[in-house]
Amino acid sequence: MKYIIILGDGMADHPIEKLGDRTPLQAANIPNIDKLAKMGRCGLFQSVPFDLPPGSEVANLAVLGYDVHKVYQGRGVLEGASMGVKINDGDLAMRCNLICIEDGKIKNHSAGHIDTKESHILIDFLNDKLSNDLLKFHRGISYRHLFVMKDGNNDLHFTPPHDVPGTPFKDVMIRPTSNNGEDTCNLLNDLILRSQELLKDHPINKKRIANGKDPANSVWFWSSGYKPSMRTLTEKFGISGAVISAVDIIKGLGVYAGMEVIEVMGATGLTDTNYEGKAAAAIEAIKTNDLVYLHVEATDEAGHSGDAELKIKALEYLDARIVKYVMEEASKLDEDISIAILPDHATPCEIRTHTHDAVPFIIYNPNLNADDVLEYTEDACSKGVFGVIEEDEFMRSLLG
């Protein structure tokens, strides 16, 4: 038996009034995913413990069967692994967003989804002005970058920028959680303020404003941690794996999990991603790996934007352009393929951030009888044979 996990990031949601009190999953036309639900066995997965933040860095670790309380170290170190940045013992690595601030408030977490070429120019500029032997910015993709501080203290409280659109930025700056974190906290907050002075008149931002786009006029630090200690999937479960994603955090998780990281041309992390390319790469990868982890970010970004119609479109693209192909091509292979579908966490459109909701999942195993679930929705899956599972139970259920 081999295994393909198709993960629609943040695709679970809450009922939305303008959708007739339906969730996007209930409103979307997703016949292939519904077919898989009828063929498979369903349930809800409490992917994020209530004492940890409901972010992708925690949830995806849980999906892959890791004890998140033991291995979670923030998303920065995972993204650093994907980017090829060496994180040494004692280095404090963290996500560095380029964000848009307007009238003293966080307008969005992505500087209007700034393109990678423009963001690299801005990160290089900040390195020239602010970095030294102890501090360095590392270029990522679009608004997502990395900041590494040698000998930083992690007794800090951060606020993810996608959690607080419309909030005065000074109300949600970094806070120390002990006296030990005060120096690191003060340094990071000072860098945020200095970045605003440096970026406000940068030619890239002047051009963006002239073209009606949001400027990238501040950095924002969050999700810090040290180098994690993780066993590979081979060491944990005796299987090989491959990961397909446009997002550095997922690719970095794959690096630490010992998975093959497969790059797909045109994979963007948005609704315009190369769905067909990802699907084809998954089928090719399953021929030489025991497990393939196919991650799609578009549904999460739609949730953060509060755009229910865009989320429905992303769900329908996932269904028609990935799930349909994977189901058809997997059935042609000589070896039995088990297919699972789930989100890592919920990203409800009406609150535009992640929640701790248990998420709906399907596990289709061609050798097991189906349960009575007839469609893939939050409510329908709650009635599945698995009930509510947690911790490493999803991965162990998938692997049997």
CATH class of the largest domain: Alpha Beta
For the secondary structure, the number of strands is 15
Number of domains: 2
Largest sheet, if any?
A: 8 strands, mixed
Mean of all residue-level pLDDT scores: 96
Question: Can you tell me the CATH architecture of the largest domain?
Answer: 3-Layer(aba) Sandwich
N-to-C order of helices and strands: EHHEHHHEEHEEEEHHEHEHEHEHHEEHEH
The helicity comes to 25-40%
Strand order of the largest sheet: 11-10-12-1-13-14-2-15
Strand-residue proportion: 15-25%
Total number of helical segments? Answer: 15
What structural class results from the helix and strand content? alpha/beta
* Computed CA radius of gyration, to the nearest angstrom: 21 Å
- Kindly identify the CATH topology of the largest domain: Alkaline Phosphatase, subunit A
Name the poorly predicted regions.
Answer: none
Taking the alpha carbons of the first and last residues, their distance comes to: 10 Å
Question: In one word, what is the shape?
Answer: globular
CATH superfamily of the largest domain: Alkaline Phosphatase, subunit A
